[in-house]
Amino acid sequence: MTVSMSSTSGGPAIAAERFAIQLMIAQGVLFAAETAAIHHLGSRIPITLLALIRAGGGLMLAVVLARHYGFAVLRTRQLPLQLLRGVIGLGYLWVLLYSLGHLPFADATAISYTQAAYIALFSVLVLREKVTRLRWVAAAIGICGALLIARPAFVDWNSAYLVALIGTSLNGLGFVLNRYMQREDSELTTMFYTNLVPAIANLPAVAMFGLPAPETLVWLPAILLLGPIGMYFGIVAVKHASTSMLGPYTLLRLVIGVLGAVVVFHELPDLFSALGVALILVGCLLSSGSVLCTKFRKGRSTLSAIVKSPG
Fold first, then answer.
1. Under a CB-based contact definition with an 8 Å cutoff, are residues 219 and 39 in contact?
2. What b-and-e string marks burial along 234-244, b requiring 16 or more CB atoms within 10 Å of the CB?
């Protein structure tokens, strides 16, 4: 399943950005389905064992997609950085587990969606991207929409909130590093090492908890396949568009989750959830709209120059 970009009208840059947005939407669908499976499993499978299954699925996906390249997929000139990316992903997982264990579920979930702001911040610090004011606004609007859907209470503020808030930055940093590392390595190499570290670190989960119960096996393909495919789509997406533009699109899984509840369970969202969905979509449009506005201004300037030129 090699993901490639087909040529579309509107110029190579806009075509690449449109392709990246399509991948992020597909990622949102896959992550929403994976999240639904995890919620259904509940506490029947420990999170560390689920993380091992997901990382193992990511490794298998990278190996299958790189079957024509052989061991070349392991070659990298930035091995320390690739391993650091894996450690960052592992660190975020542990912080997420800590926050879920020490904070109300809605609070921990809401904090995790602040990653859109961290993505914009690390886009500036790591990639030296010029993040426009419109994209900062888009990230803020998207986060507000996520808060309306999750509706955290934020009562009894304690150090666990600070740990969760700082830990969420690891997820944003990992998203940005996916683009940085593809300056020299392929997306498959990045995919392999991103999953290698969590897979090794979570191996003791098998000895601690044993294999999953037979009644849970029907749900495991969602974690083994959908999550890793969604991760791969995200890695490919940042190769074709700036991370600051794609940041608000990481919130789409919330929108898809709300829409899925309407379609599957016929549960209509309340006013706050509907408004949250609208704000996330507005944030996405504003973030990608800045690119279209830039192209429009350049085209208008070029047209004016042609009209004003003599003869």
1. no
2. bbbbbbbbbbb
Q: What are phi and psi of 220, to 5 degrees?
A: -65, -30
- Give the closest residue to 251 by CA, choosing from 154, 125, 119, 123: 119
Q: Which of 97-101, 119-123, 226-230, 306-310 has the lowest mean pLDDT?
A: 306-310
Closest CA to 56 of 230, 235, 223: 223
Q: Is the dihedral of CA 257, 218, 22, 230 positive or negative?
A: positive
Q: What is the DSSP letter of 226?
A: I
The answer, yes or no, to whether residue 199 has pLDDT greater than 90, is: yes
Q: Given its phi and psi angles, is residue 9 left (phi above 0), alpha (psi -120 to 50 degrees) or beta? A: beta
**Domain parsing of the chain, residue ranges:** 22-301
Our measurement of the distance from residue 253's CA atom to the centroid of its chain's CA atoms, rounded to an integer in Å, reads 9
- Write down the pTM of the prediction: 0.85
**Can you tell me the distance from the alpha carbon of 3 to that of 233, in angstroms, rounded to the nearest whole number?**
8
28 vs 40, more confident: 28
Task: Annotate 290-300 with b (16+ C-beta within 10 A) or e (fewer).
Answer: bbeeeeeeeee
For the range 292-298, what are the long-range contacts, defined as Cβ-Cβ under 8 Å and sequence gap of 24 or more?
A: 292/14, 293/134, 295/11, 295/13, 295/14
For the stretch 79-124, pLDDT in tens is: 999 999 999 999 988 888 788 778 887 888 888 889 999 999 999 9
Contact 242, 290 (CB under 8 A): no
Q: Residue 96 is encoded by which pair of tokens?
A: 């997420």
**Which has the closest alpha carbon to 255: 269, 238, 241?**
269
